[in-house]
Amino acid sequence: MRCSVRKLAARLRCFVRRHLAVCISVLVGAAGGIAGCALGFVSGLFFEVIFRRLREEKSFSEKPEEPVDEGRLSALKELELSPDASAEEIKKAHRTLASRYHPDNAGGDSARFMRIQDAYEYLKP
């Protein structure tokens, strides 16, 4: 099974968060009886709060900022699409706009048609 580094890190954090509190409560409980169990339970809650706060701050799960591809953005703008358009949407927009602006059609615009073609060639998977 192949996993990305990001998925493995997430699994490791989840494992540590779940099992660290249990291990601490068992160790402290074994050392100090009922008072130790209570202390272990509180320390487990403490670790849970720490992990929750770190998750909220996104220090663990924050994705590194990806560089902006200006060529892709301008090509998507030419095809009148949003930056998160899928390959299916790109193909559909290309067909629609190409048929609308084809020079052989009435009201066609050859310059716009060429820009649409270039944009699609740039974005084509």
Main traits of this protein?
mainly alpha, rod-shaped, 125 residues, 4 helices
Short description:
The protein contains 4 helices and no strands. With 125 residues, it is an all-alpha fold.
Task: Characterize the structure shown.
With 125 residues, the protein is an all-alpha fold. Helix content is 73%, strand content 0%. It contains 4 helices and no strands. Helix 3 packs antiparallel against helix 4.
Helix-strand makeup class:
mainly alpha
**Average pLDDT figure:** 75
Backbone CA Rg: 28 Å
What proportion of the residues form beta strands (DSSP E)?
under 5%
Helical amount among residues, as a percent range? over 70%
Distance between the termini: 26 Å
- Beta-strand segment tally: 0
Biggest sheet descriptor: none
Number of helices: 4
Order of helices and strands: HHHH
Low-pLDDT runs of 5+ residues are: none
Shape: rod-shaped
Break the fold down into its secondary structure elements and pairings.
Blueprint: H1 5-57, H2 70-78, H3 87-101, H4 110-123
